[in-house]
Amino acid sequence: MAYVNSSRAASFSLADRISGFLAQFKVQMARRAVYNQTVRELVQLTDRELADLGIARVDIPTVAREAAYGK
Q1: 34 and which of 16, 41, 52, 68 could share a cystine (Cβ 3.0–4.6 Å)?
Q2: CB–CB of 34/68 below 8 Å?
């Protein structure tokens, strides 16, 4: 016999889904802001300063991605 548990279906209302989407959107925007800020700061460094940090200029996007989103 098949049946639907109405209490579970009601727990995922449209308002819940919109709120979840907005929360995830805010998290993604914050991560993107960290990425952009990291890139801006690293681009301003000289090649010597980057070398002292062990970062090649070509690796800046990768370093920024790891800082914002993890490995």
Answers
A1: 68
A2: yes
What is the rounded CA–CA span in Å between residue 69 and residue 8? 32
Residue 71 has a pLDDT of 81
pLDDT at 13 over 80: yes
d(CA 22, CA 25): 5
Average pLDDT, the chain: 90
> Which residue's entry shows tokens 């490995």?
71
Residue extents of the structural domains in the chain: 26-71
Mean pLDDT of 4-21: 76
